[in-house]
Design brief:
6-stranded mixed beta sheet; 27% strand; 8 helices; elongated; Aminopeptidase; alpha/beta; 2 domains; 27% helix; Immunoglobulin-like
Length: 426
């Protein structure tokens, strides 16, 4: 199973971190024949997909035994493992084309309160089941397709105890493959070499298994990816910048890998794009965030907490993530980087006001994970709110995206010429 991981191209570094590449399943698959209700198989004359296709999924059973059934057009390999706090069961598979109804899995049954599915990277997909209490896999198997019945992945879950669940988590973790990689010790905010084009990294939030905020048929992951591509195109038109996207398709990228990608590219600026939701539907307009461990207000703290849970939503275990290398040098670099980030944020606000409605408090501070690269000036832009109808109408308008992309490009061009260019020439 191929994994979509960002490669690190660092020439120097101090300190090492553990990185998790895979987990081995703690449950052996068993082949059984069971009476299952039929589901329509793909038409015999339908063209074969390059990747396996999921055509249906459903939950059955009750609290004593809950069953997840996934209909596929072919047999696939899979692995199952648990994650705790919150209780989750993860099914990893090769890349799957999920041709399932929008919103499937939002309601639960039995011990499963909800489930999510999506692409975790090129060649890899995942189903995440949220549990109301500790559970364990009693049976997990896949049935060969027969006549008008498609291939079926079947996972049976029964109740367990917290102690047994945590023991299963620990056991599955023993088999993980670990790599130690050098992390660079930053010596200052990234700058571009004289004559070289500055590297801008654009980070469309969410993706794959993590849709982000949802409003009807509109999903945050799609809205921000479209905006990221529009901004990339406008930046490239200037001929002045190198531009890279943390993702340019509907895949999930862990938060740490997004930051790592910007660092490996030696980006002089990282722009993370989001369009979140709030219970207060009257809140509207664009907002720009820069890093601060202490949020500027309760709303900012809540949004940061929501965004920083993206990895948990996708079934990524963050319990063994080590703290980043600490020291006086990094503190000094981070301080200078924060100052540059604030400078970019203020410039963005000035140009964005000309093309869109800004929140009444447009510059805020919070501890968003994606803003934490010590040497990469970073801003997180909430384009608007998926819970506000006017904002959704704007964000899904291609013409609005172009105007916004032009405004952001103008701000980047002005600041890089005035700030980063002067640093690079010294």
């Amino acid at each position: 199973m191929r994994r979509h991981l960002f490669r690190r191209g660092f020439d120097w570094g101090r300190g090492r971190v553990l990185r998790t590449f895979c987990r081995l399943a703690f449950v052996a698959a068993a082949m059984l024949s069971m009476p299952l209700h039929a589901s329509a198989a793909p038409a015999a004359d339908a063209p074969a997909s390059a990747v396996p296709v999921a055509v249906d999924a459903r939950l059955a059973g009750d609290k004593d035994r809950t069953r997840l059934i996934v209909d596929l057009d072919r047999v696939v390999d899979f692995k199952v493992f648990p994650l705790a706090d919150p209780y989750r069961l993860i099914i990893d598979m090769p890349e799957i084309d999920f041709r399932l109804p929008r919103g499937l899995g939002q309601s639960g049954r039995g011990i499963v309160t909800a489930y999510r599915y999506g692409v975790m990277g090129r060649g890899r997909s995942r189903i995440v089941m949220d549990l109301s209490e500790p559970g364990r896999i009693d049976k997990a198997f896949i049935l060969e397709p027969v006549e008008d019945q498609p291939a079926r992945l079947v996972v049976d879950i029964i109740g367990s105890t917290r102690e047994a669940f945590l023991a299963a988590v620990a056991e599955s973790s023993k088999e993980m493959v670990v790599e130690q990689s050098a992390i660079p010790m930053p010596v200052g905010p990234n700058t571009h070499e004289a004559g070289a084009k500055p590297m801008i990294v654009i980070d469309p939030g969410h993706g794959g298994i993590d849709p982000g905020a949802v409003s009807g048929e509109n999903r945050e992951k799609d809205v921000v990816l479209a905006m990221a591509k529009a901004l990339r195109d406008e930046l490239k038109k200037t001929g002045k910048f190198e531009v890279a996207l943390t993702r340019d398709e509907d895949v999930f990228i862990p938060l740490a890998d997004r930051v790592e990608f910007a660092r490996s590219k030696k980006a002089v600026l990282m722009v993370s794009l989001h369009a979140d939701s709030l219970s207060a539907h009257e809140v509207s307009g664009s907002t720009i965030y820069t890093l601060s461990e202490g949020a500027s207000d309760a709303l900012s703290a809540k949004l940061a907490e929501q965004e920083n849970r993206s990895d948990a939503i996708a079934g990524v275990d963050l319990s063994d993530k080590p703290d980043e290398v600490a020291g006086i040098l990094i503190d000094l670099v981070r301080r200078e980087t924060k100052n540059l980030s604030v400078t970019f944020a203020r410039s963005f606000i000035g140009d964005m006001r000309k093309v869109t409605h800004m929140n009444k408090n447009p510059h805020r501070y919070a501890g968003f994970w994606v803003l934490k690269a010590p040497e990469v000036p970073s801003v997180l832009i909430e384009l608007g709110y998926m819970t506000n109808g006017d904002d959704v109408a704007k964000m899904t308008d291609p013409e609005w995206r172009v105007h916004m992309a032009k405004a952001l490009t103008k701000a980047i061009d002005r600041q890089l010429g005035a700030k980063i260019g002067s640093i690079a020439s010294n």
